[in-house]
Amino acid sequence: MLYNSIQVPSEIIHKWQEVVDVLAEIMHVPSALIMRVEPPNIKVFVSSESKGNPYEPNELAPLNTGLYCETVMKTCQPLLVPDAFATKRGNQTLTSSWG
């Protein structure tokens, strides 16, 4: 499947932006993301515009490196990480994958 061939209309992206902004606010987390798989990478497709969010749209990270979003994809379950830097896994994932 050609992942880049799926075009998301700008109206949908705008709605998703609203969703991640509200989600970050009500969950009291610095970031809410919608990711897009583009093998061999995964990229930030939509990122909340919340204070303290370290993620920017279009940032790339390699797949199969233990990112939290990979856990979500494998388990098909929601995942709340209140403070990724407070966990060894989170700190390694954030610093190694995102620089």
Number of strands: 3
**Overall pLDDT confidence:** 85
Give the radius of gyration: 13 Å
Low-confidence stretches are none
Task: Give the overall form.
Answer: globular
Largest sheet: 3 strands, antiparallel
Separate helix tally: 3
Task: Name the helix and strand elements from N-terminus to C-terminus, one letter apiece.
Answer: HEEEHH
Q: Largest beta sheet: what is the strand line-up?
A: 1-2-3
Helix content: 25-40%
What fraction of the residues are assigned to beta strands by DSSP? 15-25%
Structure classification: alpha+beta
Separation of the first and last Cα atoms: 29 Å
Features:
single chain, 99 residues, alpha+beta, three-stranded antiparallel β-sheet, 3 strands, 37% helix, globular
Question: Any overview of this molecule?
Answer:
The protein has 99 residues and is of the alpha+beta class. Helix content is 37%, strand content 16%. The protein has 3 helices and 3 strands, in the order H-E-E-E-H-H. It has helices at 10-27, 68-75, 88-98; strands at 33-38, 41-47, 60-62. A 3-stranded antiparallel β-sheet has the order 1-2-3.
